[in-house]
Design a protein that fits this description.
Elements (H helix, E strand, L loop, with lengths): L19 E3 L5 E3 H17 L20 E2 L14 E6 L5 E10 L2 E7 L4 H8 L2 E6 L2 E9 L3 H15 L12 E6 L2
Parallel strand pairs: 3-8
Antiparallel strand pairs: 1-2, 4-5, 4-7, 5-6, 6-9, 7-8, 8-9
Length: about 180
């Protein structure tokens, strides 16, 4: 290949050997790329022990949630200002995740789409859950929504809050749970 200057791309000056290394496929790559991969792995290894300490950590599930138990509110509109909440399922052996929650009317909903996640399986085995919003813990029961009209009402609220509609809006195929008093 001829470069615009008239020479081959092989004629370009290379960085000092300490600033590059030969990658897996034999191509020269900047040393920073290799260091970045190591740095990311180091951060993951350093933060992994934190995942087992109480609630969920980023995408990793956790155990029992900590916070102050609060009375169930008359409405959940205040959760519109909170993007992510924490859900605890399986009271005998707590399992918690970070999740989006959507208020619609007087109800609060959790949506898993068509994914049969661990938290969905736990709710189907035992509907008692705990929900943390900021520092408050609410002891609730989850009930799967089976009516398309209620699902559509939820979908409208979901779109207002998150700027897009849920991926799967067929109530027969998606897991949508309404939270309420035990």
């Amino acid at each position: 290949m001829i470069s615009p200057a008239g020479g081959s791309h092989h004629d370009r000056p290379r960085a000092a050997p300490s600033a590059q290394y030969r990658g897996r496929r034999g191509h020269w790559q900047p040393a920073g790329r290799r260091a970045g991969a190591r740095g990311g792995a180091l951060v993951l290894v350093a933060t992994a022990p934190l995942a087992g300490c109480g609630g969920p950590f980023l995408l990793l599930p956790g155990g029992a949630l900590e916070g102050t138990t609060a009375a169930i509110p008359d409405g959940w509109a205040f959760t519109d200002a909170v993007k992510t909440v924490q859900l605890e399922t399986r009271p005998a052996d707590p399992y918690s995740v970070n999740i989006w929650a959507t208020a619609a009317g007087d109800h609060l909903y959790l949506h898993a789409g068509a994914s049969r996640s661990t938290w969905v399986e736990n709710i189907e085995a035992d509907p008692d859950v705990r929900l943390r919003v900021d520092a408050s813990i609410y002891e609730l029961a989850a009930a799967r929504v089976s009516g398309q009209e209620e699902f559509d009402h939820f979908s409208d609220a979901y779109e207002r809050k998150y700027g897009r509609r849920p991926r799967n809006e067929n109530v027969a195929e998606a897991y949508l749970f309404r939270l309420g008093a035990r």
